[in-house]
Amino acid sequence: MEGYFSAAVAGLGAAGAYALLGVCVVFTYRLVSVVNFTGASIGAAGTFVLVVLHQAGLGVLPAAIIGLVAGTLTGMLIGSVMTRWFAQASASTKAAVNVALLVGIVSVGLRLTGGQHPKQFPDLFPGSAFSLADVQVTISALVALGVAAAFTLVSDYFLARTSLGLQLQALSENPKSAELLGIRVGLLSLVVWAVTGLLATFAMMIIAPARSPDFMSLSLLIIPALAAALVGAFRNPWMTFAGGMGIGILQGLTSNIPHLGQYRGTIPLLVILAVLLWTQRGARWDEAR
Amino acid sequence: MSQFMVAGLEVRRSGLPVVRGVELEVTSGRISVVLGANGAGKTTFLEGLSGSIPISGGRIVLDGTELQRARPGARARAGLAHIEEGRTVFRHMTLDQNLRVASHPSTKGTWAYELFPELKARRNTKAGLLSGGEQQMLVIARALVGRPKVVLIDEMSAGLAPVVVTRLMRAVRQLADDGLAIVLVEQFPALALTVGDRAYVMRRGRMVYTGACAELKESPGHLHHLYLGDSD
Amino acid sequence: MKHDSIKSSLRLVVAAIVGGVIAREALPEYWVYLATSVLITAIVLQSLGLVVSRAGMISLCQMSFAGVGAWVVGWLNVAGAPGGLIVWTLIGGLAAVPFGVAIGLPALRLRGVNLAIVTLGFASAFDMVLATINFPGQTNFLSVARPALFASDGNYFVLVLAFYVAVSVGLEFLARSRLGASWLALRHSERAAASNGVNIPAAKVSAFAISAFIAGLSGGLLAGFLGTVVSSNFSVMQSLAMFAVAIMAGSFFPEGALIGGLLVVLVPQILRTFGLAQDWGNVLFAVGATQALSTGEAISEAVRKVARKIPWPRSTKAGPEGVADGKKLPAPLRLDRSTDALRIEALSVRYGQLVALDDVDLSVPVGEVMGLIGPNGAGKSTLIDAVSGFLAHYEGRVSVAGEKFDGRRAHLRARGGIRRTWQTTRIAPELTVGQYMRLAAGRLREDQLRAVLDWLECADARMLVSSLDAGTRRLLDVAGAVAARPAVVLLDEPAAGQSYDDAYELGNHIARIPTLFGSAVLLVEHDMDLIRLACSSVAVLDFGAVVATGRTREVLDDASVKRAYLGIAEEAMA
Asked: Does domain C328-573 have CATH number 3.40.50.300?
């Protein structure tokens, strides 16, 4: 039993990152109606800026700040493409464009970050916070979980109480009526992409040291985030948070089991299938058409 | 003193011409009523005016500014407000939040409660739970927050009891008297003709009648004919 | 239809033979090698074309299906199974199908993006699993055995070409079949497809399964081509890049797959000669795909547009003239007149507090054309949606020709005797008029088809729907519904936007539907002239309830109807 518990705790670092990325996916969908397959790759871009600057001699903190800015700008760039030319497009077209952009950004990322020198990913929050049953719970893990929880809490409050939040709610509920009221929907969309880009970068900076330093595999971390978003039905950030936690912990658990450990990459897929099978019993067809 | 003018407006929906060569004029303090049976093209006409759908021809001029190429947000900020049919409140936000979301630096939302005191008691109710009449009052008040010059109102009386419609019509007349230019699209002519100044009747996308509201009110048979066609 | 499929298939085969012979004899060996690569890629792109361009679904794991095919071929090779590479490849293709069905089924309803998420998850999981399993035979340096006849590179090229042609011919036949038409229909509008009797989930799964099969074939061929493969041949990035190329080149037309194959193989070659890294090729595909999506036009579509402008020598042989002869129309439906064609009892629809329909009773007798009128928001569309099966819940009973229809899904109601048209026409523009008519009405002989189209003065069966104007498409919607000869046809504002004369013609045609086709008609319209012309009786809805029914003239003169349309009674206006 202890082995499993410690394995589960070991998965908390990933859990926090999945939860944060998943919540970003849900908010992007709710506010600007886009399923953002590029979320993790945006974060990866900012993370690699951090790495390169740090290796060039810059301190961790300034490098991280510049990396966060880079990630935010990358998110805004993707967002401006989606908003400028595809704001009125169908959901499938938007998804197809987003996937195409993913191919582009990953290719550019691989090109710019490939090469011989092994990359060193600085741990932003090194060390362990406390130990739970002989397992170290890292500060990183706690920070990721904390930021995810804080973001969900704050955004609920923000959306309900501030005037910018109200405008975002209006954007999400009925962008057409919002525009007719003179609300600047284009600008608001960019704000959404900037904030989610920033947070995705933060999430990736936390999880990167524990993963393989390859732009592609970091970008594919969008998959457990999408699985978490499905658990939340692309609507409920708390369920998404729980989903992300669950997937991370499950992955931690299975890495302990002798023969199944190497297959823990299939867990997000299994979660996706399970959630879809459950939610679509009794459903009819794509209502939009 | 504002002047709003539409000339030769053409709008298509999936390739079909739904509005053909329509002209209209309204100035501050006046209400232009646009009547017609359903399917005549009235809603599409307003959507073309506000920019919700693109037009294929014509001019839209507000106080000398040509608006036909501007985006909907720009038209709204230029002073053209469009109150859509169907009472499009933001359902998950409260009444007060609906007013605040349209907030303009120069206005505070409280005067809406002066225009419609009934709403004060419901300020914290979610807009989706308000009655039809309350929702209609809300969308009217919300559109006025930005201090528009011209207001386009699409079928505000649809689905409402006559006593509520009377109340709303009186409010609309009040707004015009306070200086707004209003284009009022209605399917039910009776009360609209009582408060309106100029009347237009649409049929199959064209204006088939332009004249004073008072005249049309005097001849209900003529109006019936314009709407429903001949009984052979 | 079959005739057309055979013609275009023959053209393909001839082109392939000619091209193949030239390539094999004239090209240097390295180019033959590249050409084989192009064809294998083109097969993958054809599988994507089926799913993406025809059925309108996003699949991000085609290379994983190819990987299944390759690994199965590898195992069969190591096991020394009988049959040789050709049989192994076919088995590999079949092996990919259950994977396709398993991940496709849960994702086929609701949000279309669900399938994109599932396939991406599958691609990633498969990639990780594959990375832990060596390709069968790799450790023993055992390469996949090619059949003796196709052992040389030149001959293997011919084998791959043969597979490519076989797949293309198969897809040509599929495209013109009813299944192919239903894919295009559901891509454009699932509701409209269901209203023509298409079983949406079944159609989607079949598209996905067939595409998995084709992708599996390509994997087997790749294994034979390279002798041994590695997991990176089938990585997530490969699947994603293929998707981008399919969108950029346009996989709807067969030449799009070839163009895509050329892009995938030649772009890296070109980059290499300039000393640039191959990753930039993928960036090009990403930009190209984004461009194609924003303009709505892919490379092969643009090429076709240009090609159409070139004055090719065309055959001037005209088709046989159609005569608007009532005798050639398909036999009318014969119903028992003792039960109503459509009977609605106590129909109520509520959305929370809002009552859309309130205890509606309505009967359309056999042989009757009944009008349904009422002001905006009265509930006419809700009624049509409820009767035709497009509302999840309603209270009350709907029966057609005596048979209860409650609880049945939309496509079963369409097959069972209720057909409807749509306010906004949702016919897939890529279909021909004839394909659409056959989709809607089932098997029809050529002359029957022409007779229906001529009767409505609609269009020639060979024309593409995209070349028809919106008014003609509306007529086509009516033609399809009527040719199916259901017990009752629900027409939703068929004359909207039409000129006075056209609407008059249409009114006359509608009045004759019961005589010519045996179907009763419920006509929703705002055009009172049309109602007067076509309908013998009329029902009036206001605020979700029926306020008047009866003979047309009496109802239209009734005071309550005038009130419904004009608001307060006329006297009150003074």
From this structure: yes
